[in-house]
Design brief:
It comes from Tepidimonas alkaliphilus. Its cofactor is Mn(2+). One of its GO terms (biological process) is arginine metabolic process. By secondary structure, the protein is of the alpha/beta class. It contains twelve helices and eight strands. It has a single domain, classed as Ureohydrolase domain (Arginase, Chain A, 3-Layer(aba) Sandwich), CATH 3.40.800.10. Helix 10 links the parallel strand 7 and strand 8.
């Protein structure tokens, strides 16, 4: 990416949509791991807006199929407004979560911005989970398992219509990568909606390069690329600090290749980093890995490329 890229960090310190406590500490862990400094070292213009504010986690059981719906809605309204403001200012918003339910507000704002600008949208959902549950099929009621379904129009009105009337996304605008844990009812719903899913078996068989070539196919200069990066996308061997670990995720190098290929498109325009749980981490190791991957997402490559060699010659 070009060095003139301007990014804004927006903290959303809540675990109100999750089934385990601790993701509320994620934004600070990413700051401690040096996210802003790492991006500045790449030549980016970085502003940290600090943390948004919202209701505390009441830690109550599900009601009507949803846990903490009013609180999740309040946090997502704050996220939506903050992300939308940065997009209108021509900056790249980076949401520091917090749990993955916050993507409802973040992607809702991105989708609204794209509609207003007449741009196409592509969402890469990097996650161990499909997050396509509804109140009728959820085993837990935790809203961090529902954001993709909500964004596609399947959910309570106060979340579905957060970014305007109607669904924020069409299933054809989403590519899910790294999936390896899907609930039984959710699996049927994913198939029914024809969601494009590159699960771990696909990655094992085809390799990360072919997977990303397919997931990124068709991007053009009119496409806004949003990456929603759930840290549990990574194998827990390298990223233990998440509330819902699922073995068998991408290795460090596979994850780096994924990020580098996204960077190569030059289209990244907004980002979520979610579900980092320092309470379950080892000396902030997962946050440091996340920062390294985000560096790659913004153009830092492991190896010197041929065009760099030619420039030096």
């Amino acid at each position: 990416m070009e060095s003139s890229v301007a990014v804004t960090l927006i903290g959303a310190p809540t675990d109100v949509g999750a089934g385990a406590r601790g993701a509320s500490m994620g934004p600070e862990a990413l700051r401690v791991a040096g996210l802003a400094e790492a991006l500045r070292a790449l030549g980016l213009d970085v502003i940290d807006r600090g943390n948004l504010h919202g209701p505390a986690n009441p830690w109550q059981p599900a009601h009507g199929g949803y846990r903490h719906l009013p609180e999740v809605a309040a946090w997502n309204r704050a996220v939506h407004d903050a992300v939308r403001a940065e997009l209108r200012a021509g900056r790249v918003p980076i949401l520091l979560g917090g749990d993955h339910s916050l993507a409802i507000g973040s992607i809702g704002a991105v989708a609204r911005h794209c509609r207003e600008q007449g741009r196409k949208l592509r969402v890469l959902w990097l996650d161990a989970h499909a997050d396509f549950n509804t109140c009728a099929i959820t085993p837990s009621g935790n809203l961090h398992g529902m954001p993709v379904a909500v964004l596609c129009g399947f959910g309570p009105p106060e979340l579905v219509e957060l970014g305007g009337s109607g669904a924020a996304l069409r299933p054809t605008e989403v590519r899910q990568i790294g999936i390896r844990s899907v609930d039984a009812g959710e699996k049927r719903f994913v198939h029914a909606q024809r969601l494009e899913v590159y699960d771990m078996r696909y990655i094992d068989e085809m390799g990360m390069r072919a997977t990303m070539e397919q997931a990124l196919a068709g991007l053009d200069e009119q496409t806004h690329l949003h990456v929603s990066f759930d840290v549990d996308f990574l194998d827990p061997e390298i990223a233990p600090g998440v509330g819902t670990t699922v073995p068998g995720g991408p290795t460090y190098r596979e994850a780096q290749l994924c990020m580098e290929m996204i960077a190569d498109t030059g289209r990244l325009a907004s980002l979520d980093i979610v579900e980092l749980n320092p309470a379950l981490d080892e000396r902030n190791r997962t946050a440091r890995v996340a920062v390294e991957l985000v560096e790659s997402l913004f153009g830092k490559s492991t190896l010197m490329r041929e065009h760099q060699v030619r420039r030096r010659g």
